[in-house]
Amino acid sequence: MSGGAYLKGARWERSLKNELEQRGFFVIRSAHSGSDGTSPDLIALRSTKKFALECKAWKKGVRIEGQKMNIMKAWEQHTGIPVYIAWKKGREPWKFYPLITLRETPTGHTLQENDLSTGITFEEMVSTPQAGSPVGNPA
Questions:
Q1: pLDDT in tens, 121-130
Q2: Taking a C-beta distance cutoff of 8 angstroms, is the pair 52, 42 a contact?
Q3: Distance CA 58, CA 101 (A)
Q4: Cα–Cα distances in angstroms (integers) from residue 108 to residues 15, 37, 74, in the given order
């Protein structure tokens, strides 16, 4: 990733972090998480809800390499905290996707532009969950 692209992505991550904090979450940002691939970009914690986000601010579809997807699935399994892909496309609002919703390809996993409408909205992500919500569901 070029320096300019990294700075733009980091700016969007910080913006989403601020939005989550305004909604009562404690948010940990893992700077340069894409370079080591061992943790999601943001971890959002509140007494009633916890989730992690791998943030992508891409105009076209999202692609996650197979190794990175395996790392995120393992992280989700070990922590019990669901991981979502957070996708910001242009001027569209953030949308969130459980890992299981990405399509597998020979080289990784993808979301395409027509998937944008199927994502979970910000309001749905920050709403209070039902007791005992399983990993991988936004509730």
A1: 999 999 976 4
A2: yes
A3: 18
A4: 27, 14, 16
Q: Which amino acid is at 38?
A: T
CA distance 94 to 40: 16
pLDDT per position as a tens digit, 15-72: 999 999 999 999 999 865 555 567 899 999 999 999 999 999 877 889 999 999 999 9
Question: Has this prediction a pTM greater than 0.85?
Answer: no
Order of strands across the sheet with 108-111?
Answer: 62-65, 108-111, 103-105
Residue 100 to residue 84: CA distance in whole angstroms: 9
What fold does the segment set 3-126 form as a domain?
Trna Endonuclease; Chain: A, domain 1 (3.40.1350)
Q: What are the sequence ranges of the domains in the chain?
A: 3-126
119: helix, strand or coil: coil
| Nearest alpha carbon to residue 50 among 70, 27, 31 | 27
How far apart, in whole angstroms, are the C-alpha atoms of residue 51 and residue 21? 13
